Amino acid sequence: MQYVRKTYVEFIHPGVVCNVVSKQEIETRDVSRLMVPENAFAFKFHDTISTTVMVDGVEVELTSKCINMSPLHYYGGKVFTLAQLRRKMPDEDILIRNVERSDSKKVILCRTGNWQPFSETDVFVPAT
User: Fold this and answer.
1) Measured distance CA(107)–CA(32) in Å, rounded
2) Rounded to 5 degrees, what angle do the CA atoms 102, 107, 108 make?
3) Secondary structure of residue 86 in the 3-state scheme
4) 55, CA 20 to 30 Å: which among 66, 77, 83, 123?
């Protein structure tokens, strides 16, 4: 059985209530060759495997779930530890309390102006 492996990038954009994701097929996961949309603050990669089979004389395409998922890559912005937030932004009570209560003790002020948790598995990519 022949199959096709495709690689995708998912761009994460800030939304009104929750983040919005756009997806496109790409040839390589080389971050230096990636064109990040201006309104995206993060991205991640994944692959799918597809094949075509005959079912009752009809060709049917089967596609796997997302596999080989990458960590979340934040593009641009500035990462802050809890200590840095307390020192540089002492009046940001809600943000500081949210970070204190979260599993990750870092946050990122994204290039789009929104705050997001920054976990140990996340990757920071400087904007070019």
Assistant:
1) 24
2) 155
3) helix
4) 66
pLDDT of residue 71: 98
In a domain, 44, yes or no: yes
Structural domain contains residue 127: no
Give the C-alpha separation, 79 to 98, whole Å.
Answer: 15
To the nearest whole number, what is the mean pLDDT of the chain? 95
Give the per-residue SS3 of 91-127: CCHHHHHHHHHCCCCEEEECCCCCEEECCCCCEEECC
pLDDT tens-digit profile of 73-118? Answer: 999 999 999 999 999 999 999 999 999 998 888 999 999 999 999 9
Query: Do 34 and 97 have their domain in common?
Result: no
- The total domain count for the chain is 2
Burial letters 39-75, b for 16+ CB under 10 A, else e: ebbbbbbbebeeeeeeeeeeeeeeeeeeeeebebbbb
Query: Of the candidates 75, 92, 111, which is a domain's last residue?
Result: 75
